[in-house]
Amino acid sequence: MLNRIFLLAALFLPAIPGLAAEEITFNYVYAEDHRVNFSNIRRGPIKLAEFTDSRDAASPNLIAEGYIADKPLAIIVRDALIQGFQKGNATLVDTGENVWLEGKIVSSVVELVSVNGQDSIQLTVRTEVKLMGSGRTLYQTVLFGRGAAPLNEGITPALNEALNRSIRGLVQDDYFLNELL
User: Fold this and answer.
1) What tens digit of pLDDT does each residue of 24-67 get?
2) Which of 105, 101, 99 is nearest to 145 (CA)?
3) Distance of CA 105 to CAs 31, 94, 117, Å?
């Protein structure tokens, strides 16, 4: 019981005003193979527009309560999705696009959970994405990225898994693929 109280205190002490949150340097690399070929996008070139952050956070670099990254979470999520598209051989453009993907961080929450009897950090990042083209919304959803890691490993592996899950959620969505490919 005392161990659980200590763990909860470790998670929530950074939330107390005046105490600093844990700062991390985050370098994400998408290493999975989602097996989706984006080399021949039917609608033409695609652009990943700048993502925004609609959370009521004190800093755009806040991953979740008690954890601050070296760059904004919206940039981290966008960069992860870019890697997911590139893994499928997508040609991404900055100008001259026929379709574009917009994104907005809706929420990010960290919780202490038990995974297989081990105290773990669970991170959930929700990102609203819209595929736009021809002056209208072609596809819209909220990506649900959740990852967990043992408490002693910190937030980084949980964020990695949350990003992996977000990418899988998008690139393996039949409705999204139907609009794009």
Assistant:
1) 999 999 999 999 999 989 988 899 999 999 999 889 999 999 99
2) 105
3) 23, 21, 31
- Whether residue 114 contacts residue 120, with contact meaning beta carbons closer than 8 Å, is answered with yes
Tell me the per-residue pLDDT of 126-158, one tens digit each, with 9 for 90 and over. 999 999 998 899 999 999 999 999 999 999 999
Q: In DSSP terms, which residues pair with 53 in a beta bridge?
A: 105
* Calpha distance 176→34 (Å, rounded): 14
Residue 14 has pLDDT above 60, yes or no: no
What is the CB neighbour count within 10 angstroms for residue 102?
18
Q: Give, in degrees to the nearest 5, the angle at Cα 113 between 24 and 167.
A: 60
Using CA of residue 7, residue 108, residue 141, residue 74, what is the dihedral sign?
negative
Burial classification of residue 161, based on how many CB atoms lie within 10 Å of its CB (0-12 exposed, 13-18 middle, 19 or more buried): middle
Side-chain half-sphere of 69: how many Cα atoms within 13 Å? 21
- Name the band, by pLDDT with cuts 50, 70 and 90, for residue 121: very high
